[in-house]
Amino acid sequence: MSDYVQMWKDLGMDLQTHDALCQVLPTAFGDVYLSQENRPQAMGFWDFVVSEIHGIRPSELIEAQKQGQKVFGTFCVYVPDEVIIAANGIVTGLCGGSQFWVPGGEKVLPKSTCPLIKASVGARLDRTCPFFRIADMYVGETTCDGKKKAWEILGEDVPTYIMDIPQMKREKDIQKWADEIAEFTKVVEDLTGNKITAENLNAAIHTINERRKALARVFEARKSQVLPISGKDALLMMQIAFFDDPARCAQMSNKLADELEQRIKDGVSVFPAGTKRILLTGTPLAIPNWKLHHLIETSGAAVVCEEMCTGTRYFENLVDESQTTLEGQLMALAQRYLKTNCACFTPNTGRIEDILRMAKEYQVDGVIDVNLKFCCLYDTEGYTVEKALKKSGIPVLGIETDYTDTDAEQLRTRIEAFIEMLG
User: Fold this and answer.
1) Which structural domain range is residue 151 located in?
2) Is there a contact between 86 and 203 (Cβ–Cβ < 8 Å)?
3) What pLDDT digit, counting tens, does each position of 130-142 carry?
4) In which element (H, E) is residue 259 found?
5) What is the DSSP string of 194-246?
6) Structurally, how many domains does the chain consist of?
């Protein structure tokens, strides 16, 4: 990694503790990613981003702030990036996916809180992640009780705005969400000093739609019997998408998709013919949480799709670009974002339908339902997911885990047995 020490000092980071993370990450990335054979050449971009993960993008954000732009840190796919971009703001994801940050979160949160929340809080309070230091405002949301309380703690340390997400999807709930987005536009305007108009919001909607289309192209290639990319590499692309400039993300994802489509034509696969195809569903896998993909893909199977926030939920469904008024655009945003099927909703039959649809589209042999420990929402919904899959004759394995490696071999044994059962 290049020398960013002065930048980290200026951000008030704990350099000694941060150095420990910087020493561990390259080895972990090398073991999981660089050990793969026959990777697409376009993955070199994401390899470079990870090699400079706490340097190159943070330095871009700081330079943008010097030019007067504001940075919004978000934790959830329900926060509409379009609104922030329309006001010339910048969005960066903030979810933590490393055990390294969990102890810091446990200083203020119960141990029985999910590791994603604990890691996110720990990354801020322990001053070991530049993204958490740079953001001018955090934007939280009410997708779970643990997050609601975490926002109160983070709000003592950094300006935090909370969006109230409806828990159902009736017409009045969609209207409520449109009203909530309208209130958010005022908050964004106040912080950035820029007015959101129908023209600049339409441009932002187009920008984010183009990113969605580019990511979708990569996932479309994963439907092929010729698997041109590993699940690990596709996951990395998705994880970085939350942090990257959206136009650059679209450009690089399209470049990757071009290569994957050519690989399919040439019959170039990264897995042997007949490798069992797995769909992952459940809680999001924030960077650098690569554990489950690595276990599956070193146990004889391939991950071909993720029905997760760090997967299809992030890019499926475009926002209607035909609206010409702010009111119409805000409703179009509300309608699109509420099509995302998080376990926080009740009833949530849409997610079951998504999983069954994707199982067919991606020609999967089995489904692994992943639940981060202490995530009550997805753990409870696992019952419905498993029942629906079994009724449809699709093998399913339920897994509960966290960010530690203490259960890795136990999980490997269960995953290998599941793959063997697939025949």
Assistant:
1) 5-421
2) yes
3) 999 999 999 999 9
4) helix 246-266
5) ----HHHHHHHHHHHHHHHHHHHHHHHHTTSSS--S-HHHHHHHHHHHTTS-H
6) 1
